[in-house]
Write a structure and sequence with these properties.
With 297 residues, the protein is an alpha+beta fold. It is 18% helix and 22% strand. The chain is globular. One of its GO terms (molecular function) is dioxygenase activity.
Length: 297
């Protein structure tokens, strides 16, 4: 059994330096206008998360993780070399790589991510939910169907979650960048489709009014930049038929105080947290204690 990095709840490598004072955190703060845009539209894009050398280091680690026989892969919660059933539409998708590789472990404690996450959660302390990798190979990369993240997460309550999607390649329309449906976070909770199935499966669950408001916006970003979205934001991404790969990682978090809504296993192999008990412990570390490192406004 490989070393399980979920036992370590602090930075262990050289990718990031932890800010020591409130002033050190200031350079990572979003503007009031950015927070207002997120609250109105349900997303906020083009937020720098990584320098090029950090992206390069993570992509080196990713090469190992894409090998299903790589030592430590038994620590994944989920591992799909192709979540699609179509070999001509490949979508690599996994959860749990923070437990295996030091770089992907330490991105949970990236100050640029945590400051933005705390602000977008209403200036609350940030606790980890789970990570994801989404990789679409060149020429035959598959889709991620239109969906809302929280439709898969109702096993945790209340809904005070946040997603950050970070590009490890330049994300373009041609290679399958993320699309958002602005203001769809106001539609309420919808039924969930098959994630790597029919791109348009969600349309069966929409009202005629919602279909009229269904105006996708592509989020093209350079590698190292991230986009944040609300747990009810409708989003998805089309296939990649370009000659370039489209690799990305996702960090999913919630405000501290979120509880389990199930007596079943929340993630594969993780000890049960009984319903109505606080989400915490080895697999759900507190990433940012707002009271300790940042004075409340």
């Amino acid at each position: 059994m490989s070393r399980d990095l979920s036992l370590v709840h602090e930075i262990i490598g050289d990718l990031f330096k932890w800010p020591r004072t409130e002033k050190d955190w200031e350079k990572y703060k979003l503007t009031d206008e950015q927070v207002a845009f997120f609250n109105e539209n349900g997303y906020l894009s083009h937020i720098k998360q990584l320098e090029k050398w950090q992206v390069d280091q993570l992509n080196k680690e990713l090469e190992d993780l894409l090998d299903p026989d790589y030592p430590g892969n038994e620590l994944f919660y989920e591992y799909h070399s192709n979540e699609s059933s179509d070999s001509n539409a490949v979508l690599f998708h996994s959860l749990g790589h923070w437990r295996i590789k030091p770089g992907f472990h330490d991105i949970l404690w990236n100050p640029a991510f945590l400051m933005a996450a705390s602000q977008l959660l209403g200036n609350k302390s940030v606790r980890f939910w789970h990570d994801q990798l989404f990789c679409k190979p060149a020429h035959h990369g598959g889709v991620v169907a239109w969906h809302q993240d929280y439709s898969y997460w109702t096993r945790t309550v209340p809904m005070q979650h946040l997603t950050c999607w970070v590009a490890l390649d330049n994300a373009t329309i041609e290679n399958g960048c993320v699309y958002y449906i602005p203001k769809s976070h106001e539609w309420g909770l919808l039924d969930k489709p098959e994630l790597a199935g029919d791109m348009e499966g969600l349309m069966d669950y929409l009202t005629e009014e919602q279909k009229k408001q269904f105006n996708p916006v592509p989020i093209e970003m350079e590698s190292g930049y991230g986009t944040f979205h609300h747990p009810l934001m409708v989003h998805g991404s089309h296939e990649n038929k370009s000659p370039r790969s489209r690799r990305a990682f996702v960090l999913n978090v919630f405000a501290d105080g979120t509880q389990s809504n199930s007596d079943d296993e929340l993630l594969a192999g993780v000890p049960v947290i009984p319903r109505k008990k606080k989400m915490e412990g080895q697999f759900f570390p507190l990433l940012l204690d707002r009271d300790e490192v940042i004075q409340k406004p």
